[in-house]
Amino acid sequence: MLQVFGPKSKSKHGNPLWMLSMPKEAFFSVKFGMLEGCQIAVFSPDGQAPVSSTDKPISSPVEGMEFTPPRRLRTDEIPEIVDDFRIAARNAIEAGFDGVEIHGAHGYLIDQFMKDQVNDRTDQYGGSLENRCRFSLEIVEAIVNEIGSDKVGIRLSPHVNYMESGDSDPEALGLYMVKSLNKYSIAYCHMVEPRMKIGAENTKFSESLQPMRKAFNNTFMVAGGYDREEGNKAIEENRGDLVAYGRLFLANPDLPRRFELDAPLNDYNRETFYTHDPVVGYTDYPFLEDTA
Ligand SMILES: Cc1cc2nc3c(=O)[nH]c(=O)nc-3n(C[C@H](O)[C@H](O)[C@H](O)COP(=O)(O)O)c2cc1C
């Protein structure tokens, strides 16, 4: 997993477009989205407030972190943001990526529009499910028109509530999104398991991604808490077409090979997950030969 923050990845509003690329055997896509409402102004030029669907700040700050209250985007500013995504997609293709993954998950800007716990707008981008999903679907449409539907994927986490970005009816939200996405014939939908909900690690879950998996017409990717065995089981049981790995891939640069050989895995180190060091915690985990 490689995170890229570059000068090309700035929106017109000066906010960084966070790009996360995932190494894959055949298809290399770049994931981008805007980490807005829960950001600190120091990342924005001139200390501007991060933009969001709302101007409500996060109510219970994360320990050791202070977030600048967001600025609610005006309705007339939204087309510019949609266009930023279109330009970013074009840039990604020109830079040589095979495709892009739109980041509509985990409390990023798109997620903040979709979730009713955050979005308190009264314009055509707030209120009903259709209105809350309008922003994300406008972005999908703009990118599909720009680079072609076969190069576009999207990441969604309807059940997850990171950074207080939760929804009162995640299944309705997930279903509305996948059914709407069917119209654009995008390459894939990547969805995060309900078990990734904060504080739910040890809870038995009645919620599942299966309704969305069944309703989506194209490749469905699942993520969140998978290991080799559970991933293989998910594919065998047709719960998804692809399984994405986060922490295990971070700690094992040769994860596909290790899975193939059923070799032991390096443990990940939580302490170095979000370091600012370009190497420590990112590219310093050993390959299989180095550990033998
Ligand atoms: C260091 C680190 C950075 C991450 N950054 C992001 C991110 O920017 N956006 C996102 O949606 N998920 C991010 N995640 C979450 C992963 O993409 C993945 O959904 C999560 O780790 C659950 O999958 P896993 O159980 O296979 O690790 C990050 C995870 C880690 C460990």
From TrEMBL:
Coiled coil: none annotated. Residues 54-264 form the NADH:flavin oxidoreductase/NADH oxidase N-terminal domain. The keyword Nucleotide-binding does not apply. Its cofactor is FMN. It comes from the Eukaryota. Residues 49-68 are annotated as: Disordered. Keywords: Flavoprotein, FMN, NADP. InterPro entries: Aldolase_TIM, OxRdtase_FMN_N, Oye-like. PANTHER family: NADH OXIDOREDUCTASE-RELATED, NADPH DEHYDROGENASE 2-RELATED. Belongs to the NADH:flavin oxidoreductase/NADH oxidase family. This is NADH:flavin oxidoreductase/NADH oxidase N-terminal domain-containing protein. It comes from Salix suchowensis.
